[in-house]
Design brief:
There is one protein chain. The longest helix has 18 residues, at 183-200. The chain starts with a strand and ends in a 7-residue tail after the last helix. Helix content is 35%, strand content 23%. The protein has 13 helices and 12 strands. It has 2 domains: 2-87 and 169-269, Rossmann fold; 102-163, no CATH class. The strands form 2 sheets. It has an 8-stranded mixed β-sheet with strand order 6-7-8-3-9-10-12-11, sandwiched between helices. The protein has a 4-stranded antiparallel β-sheet with strand order 2-1-4-5, with helices on one face. It is of the alpha/beta class and 328 residues long. Bound molecules: iron/sulfur cluster and magnesium ion. Iron/sulfur cluster is lined by residues 244-245, 280, 282-283, 286, 288-290, 293, 298, 310-312.
Length: 328
């Protein structure tokens, strides 16, 4: 249904070009959940903003984003407007930025319905009340007449979800939908997303930095580092049998409820994407780095059901260029 092919996104700036996404290939099938996980600055938000064509106009985008066969990157803005909201819905991290503080919540939902569907305003408001009920807002009729500031953070995010699903999109993109919320509310919003997905049969593209969230909801996961996916495949294979040293590091640095094992964080920082390294972007932080890692980018290899970009999967890499001969 959604196929991203060799996506690259560059932002020219006064001091050089930021290579935010450096070659992304992903596929999402009807009704499934794909999660993109990575630290901030790894390119995950930029990738989904490219899908929605929400990037600033100076961004340079190449590659293809195929949505049911048509390349979204080639659509005129007018055609794109009918994809946004109607075929693909999107929710962001901070619900306040998606809501208009001066407008009653019910009217905002009604307005977004009327952008895509022909019906009377009265009917749209009725539908808004039904949607508020569907996303679990109690006393929806009264709540439809409230303003966003009268809602709690969790209720606001529910209202944003109501807007995003108002036209029954085939795909819902959620960019860190729970990050701004309290832990208990986070779990409720994830539960809601899972329920809605099941009821409506939508696909979900979920951006997060939280591996626990991935384990909860996703079928497949792509781990991004410095603008590239470094490990991509079914959740069990990636989270339970991580292959890439970066994925292994992420999993070791995540708190496990009830465990007394010390957390080991990954030393160092991600590279500067104004000037990305010539070889593997993780080399300066990788405990297994070899000389070849610094000079050449690893090819993507298929192992089990996953795609992994790491020289460790190439037996000759050690032999020809010296195991551990490059030290940091
Ligand atoms: Fe580490 Fe080399 Fe693999 Fe990069 S390619 S993750 S530096 S072993
Ligand atoms: Mg982000």
């Amino acid at each position: 249904m959604l196929q991203i092919k060799d996506l690259k996104v560059h932002f020219p700036t006064q001091i050089g070009t930021v290579q935010a996404v450096r070659g992304l290939d992903l596929t999402l099938e009807e009704g499934k959940t794909l999660s993109i996980v990575g630290e901030s600055g790894s390119g995950k938000s930029v990738a989904v903003q490219s899908v929605m064509r929400l990037l600033p106009s100076h961004a340079k985008i190449s590659g293809e984003i195929l949505w049911n066969g048509k390349n979204l990157l080639g659509l005129a803005e007018k055609q794109m407007q009918s994809v946004r909201g109607r075929e693909i819905g999107m929710i962001f991290q901070d619900p306040m930025t998606s809501l208009n503080p001066t407008m009653k919540v019910g009217h905002q939902i009604a307005e977004s319905i009327l952008q895509h569907e022909r019906m009377s305003a009265k009917k749209a408001v009725e539908k808004a009340v039904e949607l508020l009920d569907l996303v679990g807002i109690p006393d929806p009729r009264r709540r439809a007449a409230s303003y966003p500031h009268q809602f709690s953070g969790g209720m606001r995010q529910r209202a944003v979800i109501a807007i995003a699903i108002a036209c029954s999109p085939r795909l819902l993109i959620a960019d860190e939908p729970t990050t701004a919320l309290d832990v208990t509310v986070q779990a409720q919003i994830l539960e809601l997303l899972k329920d809605l997905q099941k009821q409506m049969g939508m696909a979900l593209l979920l951006i997060t930095h939280d591996l626990a969230v991935v384990g909860e909801v996703a079928d497949e996961v792509a781990v991004m580092y410095a603008g590239k996916p470094i490990e991509y495949g079914p959740v069990e294979d990636v989270l339970h049998r991580p292959t890439h040293p970066y994925t292994q590091g992420l999993l070791r640095s995540r708190p496990i409820p009830g465990s007394r094992e010390p957390l080991i964080s990954i030393p160092g920082t991600p590279p500067d994407l104004l000037n990305p390294p010539q070889g593997c972007a993780f080399a300066s932080r990788c405990p297994h780095a070899m000389r070849i890692c610094k000079d050449y980018q690893p090819d993507v290899e298929t192992i089990d059901n996953k795609q992994v970009a790491c020289w460790l999967l190439h037996p000759q890499a050690k032999e020809t260029l010296g195991w551990n001969s490059y030290s940091y």
